[in-house]
Specification:
Blueprint (H helix, E strand, L loop, with lengths): L8 E2 L4 E3 L3 E4 L5 E4 L1 H7 L2 E4 L3 E5 L5 H4 L1 H16 L11 E6 L2 H6 L13 E4 L2 E5 L4 H20 L6 H12 L1 E4 L4 E4 L14 H10 L6 H5 L9 H16 L4 H6 L9 H8 L4 H14 L6 H4 L14 E7 L5 E7 L5 E6 L2 E8 L2 E7 L4 E6 L2 E3 L2 E6 L16 E2 L3 E4 L5 E7 L12 E7 L2
Parallel strand pairs: 6-7, 7-9
Antiparallel strand pairs: 1-11, 2-5, 3-4, 5-6, 8-9, 10-11, 12-23, 13-22, 14-21, 14-23, 15-16, 17-18, 19-20, 19-22
Helix pairs in contact: 3-5, 5-6, 6-9, 7-9
């Protein structure tokens, strides 16, 4: 404005104080902001170790602990970006939490040239937030703009628009556990109730359902020099979360933060990921098509490896794990040829608690019809063909448009590519699956 930061820091309640401060006026000259001016304008001061927040929002435990939330985030930012925590000891950011803009305008405290910002904005080590109707989203905005000011202060910049906003959304998506008040950043939300008002997953769902998903390259072209809409923030978050959490890309993505001042940042990204770029682009399509709360990035990672063609009369057997997403069979199907695919085996597709006892749901390749996922029986064997032309071919079975195979199917591809298989389940619910099935592929 998120692989998970494992460091957790307890939060306390900020002490409310009024002090005299020098604040920048709109013309750039500092002006004195006195306690009497603050009181007369209805503005109070929330003091933390690393931030001072000026606000006219009424006192409440959630509002008053915002400086402590920011203080708790600082060592988490420092750890991720490789900043010696000692360097942050004397750092001070400044924030304005705004209920009534007129109070801040009367003192010249709105962001110069951007007084009509919508929700949040930052400049240097200062940030401005419009108060929000939920405690979660108010914190989210503070952490989003806080990520910007931390990166600007300690890295010298935030990189191009998609990365800048993706990183801010990545860190802003958080969990604050009561009663311990432990803060965790870069989470994958378990449900929409955990992140009220955020709506990033729904925005991606809606865009995909409307037939307008963004390719990874399109996300990289998002320009934040103009005010972005919520959907753009959603795509930036999805890209940053994907790269930061993916087992193959995480380490390289983490190192990109060292290059935020490089004017050719995007070229460097493509160069560092060059060997994986075709797979990344394909997996991105699968990811956004299946994105859900609780997405399991480890189990959801697509298993790519090269395939080989086979002649008429050949057959191949592949074992498909029930607790993984798309898996390559290693078989290249040729456009226009006919293939017979059959599957057998018994595996676990869910684990349900009944009267305190865990009871597995057994499943076979045809799936179970007592529950459906994406319009097909839960646990049914699905297939996709991945090749150079398949993504553009509306008749081809792809990661975004899988074909139902079940116990057996006759497949005649319209485009050539590698056959991938998985069982039908949410990528958020793979952890309670177990076992595998055997698939036989024949070319009569």
């Amino acid at each position: 404005m998120l692989n998970r930061v494992l460091v957790v820091v307890p939060l306390g309640v900020a002490v409310i104080v009024i002090t005299a401060s020098k604040l920048p006026a709109q013309g750039g000259e500092p002006r004195v902001f006195t306690p009497s001016q603050a009181e007369s304008a209805g503005i109070r001061t929330l003091a933390g170790r690393t931030i001072t927040i000026y606000t006219d929002v009424p006192t409440s435990p959630e509002v008053d602990r915002l400086p402590a939330l920011f203080d708790a985030a600082v060592p988490l930012w420092a750890a991720y970006f490789g900043i010696d925590e000692a360097k942050t000891a004397k750092w001070q950011a400044r924030g304005y939490l705004i209920g009534d803009r007129r109070r801040f305008e009367s003192l010249g405290l709105m962001p110069p040239g951007h007084a009509n910002f919508v929700n949040g904005i930052s400049m240097g080590a200062e940030l401005w937030l419009v108060d929000q109707p939920t405690d979660y989203y108010r914190r989210h905005l503070l952490l989003h703009e806080g990520t910007h000011v931390f990166m600007a202060s300690f890295l010298g910049g935030c990189g191009p628009g998609w990365y800048m906003e993706g990183m801010a959304e990545l860190f802003a998506t958080h969990r604050l556990e009561d009663p311990t008040s432990q803060l965790t950043l870069r989470i994958m939300p378990s449900s929409r109730n955990e992140v009220p008002m955020l709506g990033r997953v729904k925005l991606i769902h809606d865009a995909v359902a409307a037939g307008r998903p963004l390719s990874f390259e399109q996300v990289m072209k998002i320009d934040n020099r103009e005010q972005l809409g919520n959907e753009s923030y959603a795509w930036c978050w999805a890209a940053a979360k994907f790269l930061d959490s993916h087992p193959r890309y995480h380490a390289r993505f983490h190192d990109f933060s060292k290059q935020v001042l490089d004017p050719k940042f995007d070229d460097r990204v493509r160069r560092e990921l060059k060997d994986d770029w075709p797979d990344l682009v394909a997996e991105w399509r699968a990811y956004v098509a299946m994105l859900d709360y609780g997405y399991d990035f480890e189990r959801g990672a697509v298993s790519f490896h090269a395939g080989k063609s086979f002649r008429a009369g050949d057959h191949l057997r592949a074992e498909i794990a029930a607790d993984r997403s798309w898996q390559s069979t290693g078989v290249r199907l040729e456009a226009g040829a006919t293939y017979h695919i059959s599957a057998s085996g018994r595996y676990q597709i869910a684990l349900e608690e009944q009267e305190g006892t865990p009871r597995p749901w057994p499943c076979e390749p045809g799936g179970i019809t007592i529950e459906y996922h994406d319009g097909l029986p839960l646990g049914m064997l699905l297939g996709a063909i991945h090749g150079e032309r398949t993504a553009a071919d509306p008749q081809s079975a792809t990661f975004e448009r899988p074909m139902a195979i079940g116990t057996q199917a006759i497949v005649k591809p319209t485009a050539s590519g590698i056959l991938f298989l998985r069982v039908n389940d949410s990528p958020a619910k793979l952890a309670d699956n177990a076992g595998s099935l055997i698939v036989t592929i024949e070319r009569p």
